[in-house]
Amino acid sequence: MEKTIAFFGAGNLAEAIIAGITRTNVVTKEQVLVTNRSDKARLDLIAEKYGVTCDLDKEEMIEKADIIILAMKPKDAKDYLDWLKNYIKPHHMVISVIAGLSIEQMEKTLGEGIPVIRTMPNTSALIGQSATAISKGTNVELGQLYFAEELFQTVGTTKIVDEEQMHTITAIAGSGPAFFYYMVEAMEKAAIEAGLDRDTALELLTQTVIGAGKMLETSGADPEQLRVNITSPAGTTEAGLNQLMANEFDKIIKSCVDGARNRSIEITNAQN
Ligand SMILES: NC(=O)C1=CN([C@@H]2O[C@H](COP(=O)(O)OP(=O)(O)OC[C@H]3O[C@@H](n4cnc5c(N)ncnc54)[C@H](O)[C@@H]3O)[C@@H](O)[C@H]2O)C=CC1
Ligand SMILES: O=C(O)[C@@H]1CCC=N1
């Protein structure tokens, strides 16, 4: 790829993507520019860690960039877009990773003809394991969509989706890793309370999660079948699952996903 990619926002998610894309040969370090609102120390750290160009001069970055990646918090997006519309040209392409920021909102602010892509990656991009959903705006050509796919494939898998699915996807895949971490935290805590030392608990839990993920990916069986395969009649798994069911685990998870999804909808509505 010959394009220069400029990140506006240098937080956790931007760093995860920068780490991923600079580890591959798809773009060179020289093609990656990074800025943030005002945190020079953070930019120095990113420059040192990944060898990319970090600068606070935002106008210069727009001039050099082909692809502009929006990676600030949703609350900062409106002001940034209002500023960006004064500098953006039709040869630029804008890719957002911002939860709840709609394509309509971006197109409306940036004006006619600007290609805009909305994505939802997750922080596993840091190790090339993101599950990134991608939706294209009205001015995006197929080649530009393929470019975005190729870019995010450097940090994991990609899936093209209708934008209307993005609220749900933000809940299960953008926020999703945090929910699995919370489950691991809870299991670790229970194991420690039962007398296991922390290191052993975390080591075994980590490999258990990796193994379960790989089984989901490679076995060809669905999660229900994989669960049934572990659950011997009157055995230990059944005893544990009975507790989850008695405490309405399904309902808890549904309210978790709905909570995240509804927050995504709220963020979108607040921008309109
Ligand atoms: N953290 C995550 O797991 C995920 C986050 N996202 C989205 O990514 C975005 C960033 O999230 P985090 O990295 O966690 O946030 P963060 O708070 O760590 O980073 C935000 C960055 O944006 C910068 N910024 C704010 N206004 C700016 C401006 N006008 N110009 C340039 N930079 C500006 C800040 O200086 C900071 O570097 C959010 O919109 C979030 O919805 C999406 C998927 C997953
Ligand atoms: O919590 C958030 O708002 C962001 C979006 C998806 C993951 N983290």
UniProtKB/TrEMBL annotation:
The keyword Amino-acid biosynthesis applies. Its main location: cytoplasm. GO terms for biological process: L-proline biosynthetic process. It comes from the Bacteria. It catalyses: L-proline + NADP(+) = (S)-1-pyrroline-5-carboxylate + NADPH + 2 H(+); L-proline + NAD(+) = (S)-1-pyrroline-5-carboxylate + NADH + 2 H(+). Its EC number is 1.5.1.2. InterPro entries: 6-PGluconate_DH-like_C_sf (IPR008927), NAD(P)-bd_dom_sf (IPR036291), P5C_Rdtase_cat_N (IPR028939), P5CR_dimer (IPR029036), Pyrroline-COOH_reductase (IPR000304). It holds the Pfam family P5CR_dimer. PANTHER family: PYRROLINE-5-CARBOXYLATE REDUCTASE, PYRROLINE-5-CARBOXYLATE REDUCTASE 1. Catalyzes the reduction of 1-pyrroline-5-carboxylate (PCA) to L-proline. This is Pyrroline-5-carboxylate reductase. It comes from Oceanobacillus oncorhynchi.
